[in-house]
User: Fold this.
Amino acid sequence: MSPDSLDFALLAARVWIAVVIFMHGWRHFGALRSGPGMASWFESLGLKPGWLHAQMVTFTELSLPVLLVLGFLTPLAYGGVCALMVVALVTNHFKNGFYLDTSTEGYEYVATVAVVSIVLGTVGPGEWSLDHAADLTFPFDPAQALLVTALVGIGGAVAFLVTFWRPPRSTA
Assistant:
């Protein structure tokens, strides 16, 4: 594969993940503006205070895509995307099983985005990025990038869940 082909592929992946995450953030932004529904939904998942988590998720989903498109602080940005997906998987999707369909929100989508984010954070942004233009060398050794991406993604999600998630008690 030529270097230009690899750089194009990495750019395409960064942009696509950015679009997907941004669109989720844009939808959440609309929900925030329309009333307390999103905050109540977060509370129902056991994430309290719901208003804070609704705003923070929305802000994160609207800001991380900028870093991804620009290819700036790439392992951190992909780690952030991974963390969003792991938290969504644990708090909402896992209980519904693997498949995402019209009646349930299974975890296939969020798990795929989390894994792809770790992989792409490890590979790096390619030469068509601000990271490359600014000659940022850390953490772009693949082992270091994997560590940073996984620590931010998985470690950040675990720290968030331990701090903020109180699963609703079953009424059965």
Summary: Helices lie at 3-34, 37-44, 50-70, 74-93, 108-123, 130-133, 142-164. The chain is about 70% helix and 0% strand. The chain has a mean pLDDT of 92.
